[in-house]
Amino acid sequence: MKDHFFTKTYLETFRIIGMVSIIVFLLNIQFDFLTSYLSGFTLSFGITILVLSSILLFNKSFMKESKIAEQDERLMMIRGKVMSTTFMIQYWGVVILIIVFGMIESTYMVSVTLAGFFVIEYIIMLILNIYYKRKY
């Protein structure tokens, strides 16, 4: 049994992201708001994600293995630890980016935006922490 990170929910989400990317490309044809690079990127990204996620969603053996892996307690714990560690790395990466962008005066809005995301993320973390401590 393999540990499939791409569960049915993830694959359905990727399909939606692919569709949105293609819609952005089609809107760009009408309103011309993307550069030629971004226009090509949104189209190729959308098609690639849409096709790959659709192939995996309709592959019965992959979905069967994915469902078994999704319910395995050991793999769930490992996935949780991986996500937790990844989140901490991302968390400190945002802190470093805030400091770096804060030092570069021409990117003031970027640093303010990153700081805003950082604060929102911290508030959500606090709320979830209180909720799970009360629940468990």
From TrEMBL:
Pfam families on file: DUF2178
UniProt keyword terms in alphabetical order: Membrane, Transmembrane, Transmembrane helix
Bilayer-crossing regions: 12-31, 37-58, 82-104, 110-132
Superkingdom of origin: Bacteria
Presence of the UniProt keyword Transmembrane in the record: yes
Name of the protein described by the UniProt record: Uncharacterized protein
Natural source organism: Paracholeplasma manati
